[in-house]
Specification:
Layout lengths: L2 H10 L7 E5 L3 H4 L8 H5 L8 E4 L1 H7 L8 E4 L1 E2 L12 E2 L3 H6 L4 E6 L6 H18 L3 E5 L9 H13 L4 E5 L4 H6 L5 E4 L7 H13 L4 E4 L1 H4 L4 H14 L3 H25 L1
Parallel strand pairs: 1-2, 1-10, 2-3, 3-6, 6-7, 7-8, 8-9, 9-10
Antiparallel strand pairs: 4-5
The chain binds ribose-5-phosphate.
Length: about 270
Amino acid sequence: MDWGMKNRISRIIKPDTGRTVMLAVDHGYFQGPTHKLENPRKTITPLLPYADALMITRGVLRTCVPPEWDGPIVLRVSGGTSMVGESLSNETITTAFADAIRLNVAAVAISIFVGTKHEQQTLANLAKLVDMGEEHGMPVLAVTAVGREMARDARYLGLACRIAAELGAHIVKTYYTEGFDKMVEGCPAPVVMAGGKRCDTPLEALQLTYAAISEGAVGVDMGRNIWQCDDPVPMINGVRAVVHEGLTPQEALERYEAVKCECDADADKEEVIY
Ligand code: R5P
């Protein structure tokens, strides 16, 4: 692997732990103003100090993230569909490679829709992006998207992860399911877990994170379970404690509570000042 490619990957997957907590805020690219991400700048800003990388589209990056932030950007470059359209899987590449380079990103990200009518098209998109990535030293993160109709079982996700890795993806993002360890074993590229829908409690989200890490994920690329949580900053700190420090879910919940106390105290001070 060339120096530039290795350097970009090590900005995302931290060399001291071999792990990463990526913050996913790209949901609007097909969902529009997702709950709690209606104002992206407001949601993202307090979380930036705790994110190892930010997964985002170019539009929200340019308008809502200060260029002074020196964390790595994983740029979502696929899309072209919407929640209200005919088919979510009918994706194309929506961002020129030159623009990704202009934005100084650390990786580009694309969804694949294995088993849908657009399987071939989305896999060809990935292959093309990997060719460009290899040419320019830019890692490609492949998301094993699940269309409305696809099952999220280990057999399906394992198939999709392996295909992504075979086509040359440098990082694969997928969902947690029973048999996750086997999926990771069958995927020669590093795997990060997408959080999925918001869990009922912070402890459940920490348990999900712990399970994925214990079963071989190099980290998470998590969105809703962080910023839809009532306390996003404590939540991302809890997730970091599991991913980077190896804390158990219960120990990480104590970290969550401790950070929540600090945040509440800071908020009280602000109220006194004003
Ligand atoms: C979906 O395709 C988007 O790429 C999200 O980044 C992904 O679903 C991760 O976010 P969440 O943890 O909310 O599932």
